[in-house]
Design a protein that fits this description.
It comes from Orchesella dallaii. InterPro entries: MTERF (IPR003690), MTERF_sf (IPR038538). This is mTERF domain-containing protein 1, mitochondrial. This protein is mainly α. The protein folds into two domains: about 5-215, Transcription termination factor 3, mitochondrial, CATH 1.25.70.10; about 285-344, no CATH class. It is built from 19 helices and no strands. The protein is globular, with a radius of gyration of 24 Å.
């Protein structure tokens, strides 16, 4: 058994316990070692699964016209009426494979209502419920028993009730992943980044990017990690800090990350520690960084050492509007800053 899988099976609060219930035992080891991910799992985002889901839904009945406007059927379809009452933005469904028969060939009470009730019983607030259904209509085509297993899996993995709600609200596609796939993906992050069980739970729950990263393109996660470690020179511990603080970094393009880091580190002499303390530096457009740092040099306020007077922190560089930056950080009028930007 792999080290990661062993950690799952012990009773420590610092590990993700492997699911032992028979109905959830489709996965064998719980976590795969690096490189052992399912061939069909690596590099597959859920959005790419629309083709597979399309076939499942369209087989329910004869196809309607592929191009449609939901509003035109609002008075004729009970499904449309009830979903609109729930706050679902059905205009977001237009043009997506499989949504037409889902709306007009499915029976609301037998197909949709059990799933909606399950989410409500799980504690999903009304606003989050409408958002989940708006972004992932295909959840209404799931077997409610599978959804129950996927929610139970998170509880068995010691995710708190709040974390479970945050995960499914911030990543509406999460519940469309089977238990084995989610298990493999959590195992991938645990093994690849050498995370503890608590750190995996934290990653899967942090902000909106954490839950989304778990179901993201694993090949891209590896590419970004290579860039951060091998090309930028961050240590493994520093990478974990970046990952747990700002997982959205792993959804950026490697080109953008390299350009921002090259400017900050090689031109402006920001250290690796500076970036780890303020990961938003890697999420801020290179142009904005150049504009703001360049202007601070123009007005004699480019002081980035905490040991010196008039210290400008990294957070002050990357937060706030241009007006707030001009008045609060650069200590000048907005017009003066705008005039500077026009010269670039």
């Amino acid at each position: 058994m792999s080290t990661a899988a062993s950690e799952l099976t012990n009773g420590s609060n610092n590990s993700l316990r492997h699911v032992e219930k028979p109905e959830l035992s489709a996965t064998t080891s719980g976590l795969h070692e690096i490189g052992e991910e399912d061939e069909n799992d690596v590099g597959v985002e859920f959005e790419d699964e629309d083709e597979n889901l399309k076939q499942q839904v369209w087989e329910k009945g004869p196809a309607l016209l592929p191009t449609f406007n939901v509003g035109a059927y609002a008075n004729e379809s009970e499904n449309v009426k009830k979903l609109i009452q729930l706050g679902v933005d059905l205009s977001r469904w237009e043009g997506r494979y499989g949504t037409i028969p889902l709306l007009y060939k499915s029976d609301f009470d037998t197909t949709m209502k059990p799933i909606i009730d399950l989410l409500i019983d799980a504690g999903v607030p009304d606003a989050d419920l409408s958002r989940i259904l708006t972004k992932n209509p295909f959840i209404l085509n799931e077997d409610v028993r599978n959804l129950e297993k996927r929610l139970e899996y998170l509880r068995l993995k010691k995710f708190s009730p709040k974390s479970v709600l945050d995960i499914i609200a911030r990543n509406p596609y999460w519940l469309s992943f089977s238990v084995p796939r989610i298990d493999r993906r959590l195992g991938f992050f645990q093994t690849y980044f050498n995370l503890t069980g608590d750190q995996v739970r934290a990653l899967a729950s942090v902000g909106s990017s954490g839950p989304q990263l778990i179901t993201y393109h694993l090949g891209r996660v590896k590419d970004v990690t290579f860039t951060i470690k091998e090309e930028m020179g961050f240590t493994s511990k520093e990478i974990v800090k970046l990952l747990l603080t700002r997982p959205r970094i792993w959804k950026e393009t490697t080109v953008s990350l390299r350009r921002r880091f090259d400017y900050l580190h090689n031109e402006e002499k920001f250290s690796h520690a500076d970036v780890v303390r303020c990961p938003m530096l890697l999420l801020t457009r290179e142009r904005r960084l150049r504009e703001r740092i360049g202007f601070l040099r123009e007005v004699g306020r480019a002081q980035f050492s905490p040991k010196q007077p008039n210290y400008i922190s990294s957070e002050m560089l990357v937060t706030g509007t241009d007006a707030e930056f001009a008045t609060d950080v650069a200590k000048v009028g907005v017009i003066e800053y705008n005039n500077y930007l026009k010269t670039l």
